[in-house]
From TrEMBL:
It comes from the Bacteria. InterPro entries: YdhG-like. Residues 62-164 form the YdhG-like domain. It holds the Pfam family DUF1801. This is Uncharacterized protein DUF1801. Gene3D superfamilies: 3.90.1150.200.
Length: 170
């Protein structure tokens, strides 16, 4: 249920993609493979995300879906796609918030300033985090760890706040 606003079949899989110029209906074979009939290079970011989530096997998939919906609902200016084999959100043509799904009993949201390392002044982190959610890896890179549905729901509002603050400084 990654995008509750998209039609789903009886198994809960997204069966129709919203694209700028209409809809691309998936056949059952395409749905199973996560493909829309287009080559991977031509899938829109939203199509990449939907195909990825349809195929994702992760113990925290429902939690990941809730966080994806939270980000999409609160920040429509963020453009989803798949980067580093995980959902990532672009802002002003740079990746800014990326999921790290390597853990089995947790997942991370990585807050960064794009794919390429940029020279930044040393010192204080980019934002003051009144929520206490961010764990700083560098002055311009931080993570939020999420462990279960209770944790996701408890951090939902604070996470939306942190994303807003992150977008203001970059």
């Amino acid at each position: 249920m990654i995008c509750s606003y998209l039609p789903q079949d009886e198994s809960g899989r997204v069966s129709v993609f919203n694209v700028k110029r209409g809809c691309v209906k998936m056949t059952s074979d395409q749905s199973k493979s996560g493909k829309s009939g287009k080559s991977d290079a031509k899938l829109t970011g939203i199509e990449q995300l939907e195909a990825f989530m349809n195929d994702l096997e992760h113990p925290l998939k429902p939690e990941i879906e809730v966080v994806l919906e939270n980000i999409s609902a609160n920040y429509p200016q963020l453009k989803p796609h798949i980067k580093w084999n995980a959902p990532s959100f672009r802002y002003r043509e740079e990746d800014r918030v990326t999921f790290n799904l390597r853990g089995k009993d947790y997942f991370l949201l990585v807050f960064h300033c794009g794919a390429k390392v940029k020279q930044r002044a040393e010192g204080a982190p980019l934002i003051d985090d009144p929520t206490g959610l961010l764990e700083w890896a560098a002055v311009d890179r931080a993570t939020v760890k999420l462990t279960d549905m209770g944790d996701v729901l408890a951090k939902k509002d604070k996470l939306a706040e942190v994303i807003g603050m992150w977008l203001e400084v970059i």
